[in-house]
Amino acid sequence: MGAKITKLLAEFQAGHPVAKFDKEGQAGGSRKYGYASYNSVIECLKPLAAKGLSWSHRVGGAYQDDNAYSLVVSTSLEYEDEQVVSTMYRPMMPDIQKLGSEITYLKRYQLVALCGMAADEDDDGAAAMPAEADTIARKKPGFAKATAAPAPAV
Question: According to the model, what pLDDT value does residue 129 have?
Fold first, then answer.
């Protein structure tokens, strides 16, 4: 990552950017969690866009070593003469609506990761736990649920 993008993102991250949690998901059957939609992430990133940072996504497919066809989503951040790219591969889904959801999910996760912001509750691996273990973990002293904050000015 170039020095100019790094400096711009550091200024943004200093404000602890958290996209507004405007959606609810469900994992492990009954465990619900809050997260920021792609639109909410974009709204949080507007101060960066106002400073000249832009992003774009490319969606395609590729054959992997095991000859399986995978969805490929690349996200690029551009600022002045610098660029950083993140690419993720996922198994291709036959259902077009599920595929569309997967594309949006990957775009959102890549933007969040590249910009160093929060966009969902950090469960520290609780999604991998059975629902009962997650409930027990959340009842422990010191457990704090994440809350949404307004987007910081850059």
Answer: 45
